[in-house]
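Final report, Chapter 2: Outcomes

The project's central promise was a pipeline that accepts a single protein chain and returns its three-dimensional structure in a standardized token representation, suitable for archiving and comparison. That pipeline is now operational. To close this chapter, we reproduce one record exactly as it appears in the project archive, with the input sequence first and the structure output second.
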Amino acid sequence: MPSTTPTNADDRGPIQSIDRAAAVLGLFDENTRALTTALVADRLGMNRSTAHRYLHALQTAGFLSPGNAPGPLIDQLAALVSSRQQVVALAPPILRRLADRVGLTAVLSFRAREGAVVTLVEEAPEGTILLTVRPGTVLELRAAQTRVLLAYHTEPSAVARALADLTPAEARLEQAELAKVRRDRLAWADLRRTGLESVAVPVFGGGNDAVATIALIGTTALLGGSAGEPRVEALRAAGEELTAALAL
């Protein structure tokens, strides 16, 4: 009986299509602001019917405009990259002051496909216990930063995907937590690790769109109860400071 397992050759078709689409988009430069069938065919060694088909598919997907200039999806991605670059440029001194003030590690995270991804970390300069996290770490669903970014996500389908592996009862509880985050503009982690705490606030880039999140990670003794209140307020102030800086 013939095997039904895909071969490498079977997989190559869609991958090659993506490679070619990327090559088409890579033709844009300071001198090429719109594409034509002839230009694509000539530069990429395609026949004209294939070049036309790729241009039409990229238009349909939103990568190209009807005139084969950069389309709305590229504009959207460019705006996202620009926004993140602005956050990364403005955040370090704010995180540094926060870490110095509260004596805990301050973390900036962005939204990733599977949760929040740690981008900047400023560790406390002193202390007998140092709790930290590596840049590039993708945080779990119940991390404070992930909860912030899911709570303010503009696509309900993305939130549904994030909660898909939970039982219906667990998903309802997590939705209730996200509602509390929107109400309080503050998220606590459910780390399920005795003695550890994490709390996060949103950073807004306009309206109610949370473009990033700032968090503190530490112990229950330092972040919980009345002892933690000044630290949480300092975290709120840092989030508001970065939000205000982005609005300038």
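Archive annotation: Residues 58 and 64 are 6 Å apart (CA to CA).
This record, like all others produced under the grant, will remain available to the consortium after the project formally closes.
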